[in-house]
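sorry to bug you again but im stuck and you know this stuff better than me. what follows is a protein written twice so to speak, once as letters and once as C-alpha cells for the fold. mainly i need to know what kind of three dimensional shape the backbone takes. anything you notice is useful, everything is just below:
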Amino acid sequence: MATSKLDAIMSEEEFATFVDGLPRVKCREPINFCYQWDGYWYRIDFVKAAIAAQSGFLARDDDVILASSMKTGTTWLKALIPCIMALNRDNIDHEEDDPLLTNHPNQLIPSIELSIFNPKNLDSDALNVDEMPSPRLFRTHLPYSKLPESIKNDNSSCKLVYITREPKDVFVSLWHFMNSISNAEPCPKMDEEFDSFCKGIHPFGPFHDHVLEYWNESLKKPEKILFLRYEEMKKDPKGQVKKLAEFLGRPFANKEELDNVLWRCSLERLKNLQVNKNGLEPCLGIPKIAYFRNGLVGDGKNSLTKEMQERLDKITREKFEGSGLDLQVI
C-alpha cells in the first residue's frame, strides 16, 4: 500500500485543516459523510488517496486504467480486461490460464483510490505499484480532472477504458448495491437517495459531470481513451469486446478466442463461480456477491416512478446538450 506518499505532500494536521475547509453533507451508511472537492463528492479517505496518488502514482506506457463512475457495468470490464490481457492463445480452453476461477474481478484490477493509496484498505497484501510487473492493470472512480498527471500526460502512452451507462439504471444499481453493503435499518428511502443523486451528491458525483469529462477527453484523444456504453456492450457484445481487445493491443486471432472470453466473463458464470459467491472482498470488506445483481438494461424504468424518470431524463438532456453524447437506452 502506498499511503505514506501523502506525508510528502502534507502532514496529517495540514490535511485535517484542508478537509475542514471543504463543504460536507451527511450521507447514508457506509459512506456517512461526503466532502465536496473541486465540484465532486468523496468519502474522506478517497480524498486522501486521490491526493496521494497525484504525486505517488507514476504511469507506465503499457499501463491500462479502467475508469468509471459507480455501478456502470464496471465489474464486467474488471473481468474482461484481465482475460483479454492474459489470454493464452496457444490453449484458450486451458482452465489454469483463467484468472477468474481463483480471483474476484476486484482483485485482478486494483483500485487506485480504494485500495492502493487508501489508508482504510483492509487488505494486508496490498500491492506496491512500483513492484508490479508490466503490463499493470488499474481501476478508478476518480473524475478525469483528479487523475494523476502521469496518466493524463500527452507523453504517456498508457490506455484508459471508460465505461458508462444510462443514468436511471445507474441510480437503481447504486441503490441496490448500497443497500446490500449497509448495516443500517431501515434502509434510507429511495426518493431521498434519488434526490441526492439528481443533485450530484453521491460518491464521485455528479454522475453527468463525471461522464462528460471523460467523453470530452475521449474525443480529443481517441487513441488513448476508449469510451464504452454498457447498453452497446449488451446489445453487441462480440463487436464491442472485439473493439476493446483491439484498443488494448490484444486483438483476437479468431472467433474461438472471442467466444471463450465472452463465456468466461458472462455475468451468469461470474455469479456462480465459487470464488465470487462467498466471503468478503479483501480491500473494503464488502460481500463479494454484492457486485453481481442482474445487469439488465432498462431496469431503472421498473423501479422509478414516472415523475422520477422524467426528472432525471430532463437533467440528462440539459447536461449533455451540445456534447454529442446520448445515453438513452438503445
